[in-house]
Structure to design on (573 residues):
C-alpha cells in the first residue's frame, strides 16, 4: 500500500492543453489511490473529524487558470485528505481557453478564472449554476487578487528598475498577448503609465513569459507577483506603481453543467476558508 | 490523387483495357467491406472543414480577411515557408544524396535522426532550438557575443523553426527518388568521362527532379502549417513572427469567429497550392 503513496498528487500532471484524456488518466489513478488511502485513515473517522454532517463523496472536476496550478493542487490534496471519498480532477489552462471549453459543453463542476471579464463570458453563455450564483454573486465570487510585477533574470543584467526602462530601444521585453488576462492587465498598466513599450513577443500565457525571462532570452517580462514566487529565485520580481491600475480579481463559481453542485460549493468553501486563504496568501495572492 | 490511378485500377468506367470479360467483372465488383470504412475515412477528414464553412461569419468575411494584421500574418507565412523550402532544398538535397548514394560510418543513425523531427512534438523542437540558438544558448551566446546577433523573436527564427520540422519531408522524398532511380545512366556517364559533379548536375538531378518537386511541395506545406516550434522559439509578434497558425491560435482565445476566418484562408491557400503543384509533380513521377 505505502508503495503507491508517492504518486498521490497525480492531479498535478493533468495537462494544461489536454484536459479530458489526462484528466481521465488522473481520475483513474485517483480511484486506485483513494481506494488504497482509505484504509490508512478510515473514511468514517475522517468524516467525523470534519464535523460537517454528511460525508462528501463523488468526483469533482475543477477548471482553473494556469496561475492557480500550485495552490489548487495543494488545496485539492488537503480536501481529499479530509474527504477520502472525493476525487478531484484539476484542469489548468489559460482562462480564455477554459471559457471556450466550458461554453462548448466541456463537463466540469467549478471554474476559477484569472479575471472577471473571462468569467463574464461564461455568465453570458449561461454557464454558472443559477442557484449558486443567486447566493454568491451573478458574476462569480472574487476570492483573490493578483498584481503584476516586472520579472527580470537573476542579477538583472539589463539593470531594469521601472516600467519606463522597458521602453528603451536596447531592452527586450516579453508581454502576454492581450487575448489572455495577464496581457489585458499589462495593457492596462501601460496605458496608466502613458509609456509606449513595444515588446519583442506577445506570449500565449503568463508561464511562457516567465520561461523566456528564466532562460534570459528577454531582459524583462510582465508577469503576476505569484509567478515570481513560484519561480523560486530563478527570476527576480520588481514592483512598479502602475501595477495598481491593473489588479486582477479572480472569480470562482459553480458551473451549470455540474453533476454535483453541492460538492462543487464545498470545494469553493474550502478555497475561501481560512486554510485555503493561507495557502493562497503564501503563494503571493492578495485578499479580494 | 494521381491522374494515373483510375485507369490502373480499371473499374467504374475506366479506360478500355485489353482484358477478358471475366477478369474485368472480378476486379470491377465493388468490395463493400472496403468501401464503407473508406467513406467513413473521407467523412472524418471532410466534416471538420465542412463545419468551419457552415459556421463561418460570411457577412463580415471580406472585412476580416482584408484586415492588415491578417494580411501581414498571411504574407509572413507565405514568405517564410518559401524561404524555408529554399533553405531545405540547398541543404536537404545533398543530405539525401549522401544518405542514398554513399556509405559512411553512422549512416543509419543519421538516417534515423533525419526522421526525428517528423515524429517529435514540434514544441519539443522549439525548446531544443531555444536551448541551442537562444540568446543564452549553447551556440546562440557566441552569436550574440561575437556578432551581436540574436535569433529568437526574429523572422529568421521562424524560418529556422520551419526548416527544422519541414526539411525531413524533402529529404525522405528525394532519398526515395534517388534509390529508385536507374543507376546505369550515372555509370554510363562515368565511363564516358564525366566528372562526379557533372554526373550529379546533368544526370542524377534531372532524373530525380519530380521527387525533389514533390518533396519541396510537401516541405512548403508543412512549413506553412508549423506552429509549435515557432511559438516556442520565435515568439509571437505581429508582422515579425506571428504566422497564420499563431494568429489562428491567438484569435481562438478571444474571438472564435475570427479564428474560423483565418483558418479558412490558410486552408484555401494550402489547398490551391497543393492541388496545382502536387498535380504537376506527382503525375510525372
Amino acid at each position: 500500500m505505502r508503495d503507491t503513496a508517492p504518486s498521490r498528487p497525480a492531479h498535478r500532471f493533468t495537462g494544461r492543453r489536454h484536459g479530458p484524456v489526462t484528466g481521465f488518466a488522473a481520475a483513474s489513478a485517483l480511484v486506485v489511490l483513494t481506494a488504497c488511502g482509505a484504509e490508512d485513515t478510515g473514511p468514517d473517522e475522517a468524516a467525523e473529524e470534519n464535523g460537517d454532517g454528511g460525508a462528501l463523496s463523488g468526483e469533482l472536476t475543477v477548471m482553473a487558470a494556469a496561475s492557480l496550478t500550485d495552490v489548487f493542487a495543494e488545496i485539492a490534496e488537503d480536501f481529499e485528505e479530509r474527504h477520502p471519498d472525493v476525487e478531484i480532477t484539476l484542469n489548468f489552462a489559460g482562462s480564455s481557453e477554459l471559457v471556450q471549453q466550458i461554453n462548448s459543453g466541456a463537463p466540469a463542476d467549478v471554474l476559477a478564472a484569472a479575471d472577471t471579464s473571462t468569467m463574464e463570458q461564461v455568465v453570458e453563455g449561461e454557464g454558472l449554476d443559477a442557484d449558486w450564483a443567486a447566493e454568491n454573486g451573478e458574476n462569480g465570487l472574487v476570492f483573490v487578487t493578483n498584481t503584476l510585477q516586472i520579472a527580470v533574470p537573476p542579477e538583472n543584467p539589463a539593470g531594469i528598475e521601472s516600467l519606463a526602462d522597458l521602453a528603451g530601444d536596447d531592452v527586450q521585453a516579453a508581454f502576454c498577448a492581450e487575448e489572455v488576462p495577464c496581457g489585458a492587465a499589462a495593457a492596462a498598466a501601460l496605458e496608466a503609465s502613458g509609456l509606449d513599450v513595444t515588446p519583442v513577443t506577445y506570449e500565449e500565457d503568463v508561464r511562457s513569459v516567465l520561461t523566456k525571462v528564466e532562460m534570459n532570452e528577454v531582459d524583462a517580462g510582465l508577469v503576476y507577483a505569484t509567478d515570481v514566487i513560484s519561480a523560486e529565485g530563478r527570476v527576480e520580481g520588481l514592483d512598479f506603481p502602475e501595477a495598481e491600475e491593473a489588479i486582477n480579481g479572480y472569480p470562482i463559481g459553480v458551473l451549470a453543467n455540474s453533476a454535483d453542485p453541492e460538492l462543487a460549493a464545498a470545494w469553493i468553501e474550502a478555497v475561501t476558508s481560512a486554510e485555503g486563504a493561507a495557502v493562497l496568501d503564501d503563494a503571493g495572492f492578495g485578499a479580494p | 490523387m494521381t491522374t494515373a490511378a483510375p485507369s490502373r485500377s480499371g473499374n467504374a468506367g475506366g479506360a478500355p483495357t485489353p482484358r477478358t470479360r471475366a477478369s474485368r467483372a472480378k476486379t470491377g465488383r465493388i468490395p463493400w467491406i472496403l468501401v464503407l470504412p473508406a467513406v467513413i475515412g473521407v467523412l472524418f477528414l471532410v466534416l471538420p472543414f465542412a463545419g468551419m464553412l457552415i459556421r463561418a461569419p460570411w457577412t463580415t468575411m471580406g472585412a476580416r480577411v482584408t484586415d492588415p494584421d491578417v494580411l501581414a500574418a498571411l504574407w509572413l507565412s507565405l514568405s517564410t515557408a518559401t524561404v524555408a523550402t529554399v533553405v531545405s532544398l540547398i541543404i536537404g538535397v545533398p543530405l539525401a544524396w549522401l544518405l542514398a548514394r554513399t556509405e559512411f560510418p553512422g549512416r543509419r543513425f543519421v538516417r534515423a535522426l533525419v526522421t526525428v523531427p517528423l515524429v517529435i512534438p514540434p514544441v519539443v523542437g522549439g525548446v531544443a532550438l531555444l536551448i541551442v540558438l537562444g540568446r543564452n544558448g549553447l551556440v546562440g551566446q557566441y552569436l550574440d557575443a561575437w556578432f551581436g546577433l540574436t535569433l529568437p523573436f526574429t523572422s529568421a527564427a521562424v524560418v529556422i523553426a520551419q526548416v527544422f520540422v519541414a526539411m525531413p519531408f524533402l529529404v525522405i522524398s528525394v532519398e526515395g527518388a534517388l534509390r529508385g532511380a536507374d543507376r546505369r545512366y550515372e555509370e554510363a556517364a562515368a565511363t564516358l568521362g564525366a566528372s562526379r559533379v557533372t554526373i550529379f548536375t546533368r544526370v542524377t538531378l534531372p532524373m530525380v527532379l519530380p521527387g525533389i518537386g514533390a518533396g519541396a511541395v510537401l516541405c512548403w506545406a508543412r512549413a506553412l502549417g508549423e506552429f509549435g516550434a515557432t511559438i516556442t522559439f520565435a515568439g509571437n509578434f505581429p508582422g515579425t513572427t506571428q504566422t497564420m497558425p499563431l494568429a489562428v491560435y491567438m484569435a481562438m482565445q478571444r474571438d472564435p469567429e475570427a479564428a474560423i476566418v483565418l483558418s479558412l484562408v490558410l486552408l484555401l491557400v494550402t489547398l490551391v497550392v497543393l492541388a496545382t503543384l502536387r498535380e504537376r509533380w506527382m503525375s510525372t513521377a
